[in-house]
Design brief:
By secondary structure, the protein is an alpha/beta fold. The chain contains 16 helices and 17 strands. The strands form 5 sheets. Strands 3-1-6-7-8 form a 5-stranded parallel beta sheet, with helices on both faces. Helix 8 packs parallel to helix 9, helix 9 packs parallel to helix 10 and helix 10 packs across helix 12.
């Protein structure tokens, strides 16, 4: 019997002004690894952002599994030279990447994911090194950057193939063509690539050490917020069976001893009666010592007394809410996801349900087109007046969203726009409404607030 074709999957470095392991793992790539392994491929993984792979004796994780990345100062690209901040490469050292690459057998193909559009320098560096050692090895690039900046990726990445979205229905035949191996690849008919429920578990076992596991109960979002690309990346909202999600939680708890789970859902609380609440009831019944986190933020409008009570009882020690702005005009303009009354009700409901004020975190977007300095101050004060802490999320321009044309006009850009300029760190330097001094004033107002 012929040996199975070997694939190398890579999560590349992050090049940015700042980065932090806010429960950051390449979940999409790990799902793909699980599928490919299920249908007969051997898989190796290099995760450049795995903090366990660096000399991180001084980069300790905190109690919830988060922590700083190892970083090295890098020259700023020309388009970012005017930004008065240092630029870094975050992740494992380059020589460790090369050592891991050469310690693995030569792959039949390399699959590289991409996350933030403006992190593409890390993608390019990984491809450059692959081509240095294995110039004839096909490189397939996918992920968010490849989807939203498809033409840029084709023109500049030097990948042999660029795929939009996950496109597993295209990836499988492409890999069969590349490897020339069809007879030892079992049928993939049992995996319906259109439905997440049919996928095997993500390949978390490829990691030697894990502080946490990320999971999803759903894919997509029914909202159409003008600043968000969720509906572009996933055109429809689908849900997993809550019993299957619970099984996955207990599987990793038993196999790896994981007690921290991070929900990556964009719409965790949608249709909660049929999906999220049944999951919580199963978890509560099992009485496992597990902690859950929601870094993508949950929809404040969907917080009910039962949701708040069960989340508190099931190990959600902290909760992140998406509020964005208290300005009713901007709320309506950006998609009507939440209003001030719903937000205030959500806070009170969470407090009554058992959450402590210091464990309720609220994201506020700053730098939206037309958003004034005073509007942001008002939003900060509304959050503080309700006894919880705001967290600033600088607006990042995203191609293909409804807000894209508006922001490039406001910033005075002309298309095509270098994806490096999507970086949210540029907001105070381009926005005509908020400058760097005002941004610092907003941060100081938040820092002065004591719970």
């Amino acid at each position: 019997m012929k040996k199975k074709p070997l694939l190398l999957l890579i999560n590349p470095w992050v090049y940015d002004f700042t980065a932090y392991d806010f429960w950051s793992k390449p979940l999409g790539l790990l799902y793909i690894a699980g599928v490919l392994r299920e249908i007969g491929y051997d898989i190796n993984l290099i995760d450049c952002m795995d903090r366990q792979e660096t000399d991180n004796s001084h980069l300790k994780s905190n109690e919830d599994g988060r922590g700083p990345f190892y970083k090295e100062k890098m020259p700023k690209p020309d388009s970012l030279k005017h930004i008065p901040r240092n630029y870094y490469r975050y992740g494992i050292e380059e020589n460790k990447f090369e050592d891991k690459l050469l310690n693995y057998p030569k792959p039949d193909a390399v699959l590289i994911t991409s996350i933030m559009t403006y992190w593409y320098p890390g993608v390019f560096k990984a491809i450059e090194i692959i081509k240095k050692y294995y110039p004839d090895c096909p490189v397939i690039l996918g992920g968010i950057y490849a989807t939203l900046c498809y033409q840029h990726a084709i023109n500049h990445s030097k990948a042999d193939y660029v795929l939009k979205n996950s496109q597993l229905e295209q990836l499988i035949p492409l890999l069969q063509k590349i490897t020339g191996c069809r007879e030892n690849i079992i049928s993939s008919e049992d995996i319906d690539f259109n439905y997440l429920e049919s996928y095997p578990y993500p390949a978390w076992d490829l990691y030697q050490t894990l502080d946490y596991v990320c999971l999803i109960t759903s894919r997509g979002c029914s909202n159409r917020c003008t600043y968000c690309a969720s509906h572009i990346l996933n055109s429809r909202l689908e849900f997993r069976n809550p019993e299957k999600v619970a099984e996955e939680v207990f599987y990793w708890k038993t196999l790896k001893g994981i007690d921290k789970f991070v929900f990556y859902d964009d719409a965790l609380l949608e249709n909660a009666e049929r999906n999220f609440l049944p999951l919580l009831k199963i978890i509560k019944k099992k009485k496992q010592n597990i902690n859950f986190f929601t870094p993508n933020a949950v929809h404040a409008k969907l917080i009910t007394p039962l949701v708040a009570e069960l989340m508190s009882q099931c190990g959600f020690r902290k909760i992140w809410l998406g509020f964005e702005t208290s300005d009713p005009v901007l709320q309506k303009k950006t998609g009507n996801k939440v209003d001030n009354v719903s937000f205030i009700n959500a806070i009170q409901t969470l407090l009554r349900g058992g959450f402590l004020p210091e464990n309720i975190r609220v994201y506020l977007l700053i730098g939206l087109p037309g958003q004034s300095f005073q509007s942001i101050i008002d939003s900060v004060k509304l959050v503080i007046d309700n006894g919880v802490r705001p967290y600033l999320a600088k607006y990042s321009p995203i191609p293909e969203t409804k807000m894209w044309k508006e922001i490039i006009k406001e910033y005075g850009w002309e298309e095509p726009v270098d994806p490096l300029l999507h970086n949210d760190a540029l907001m105070p330097f381009y926005s005509p409404y908020i400058n760097s001094e005002q941004y610092q004033q907003i941060k100081m107002l938040i820092q002065s607030y004591k719970l």
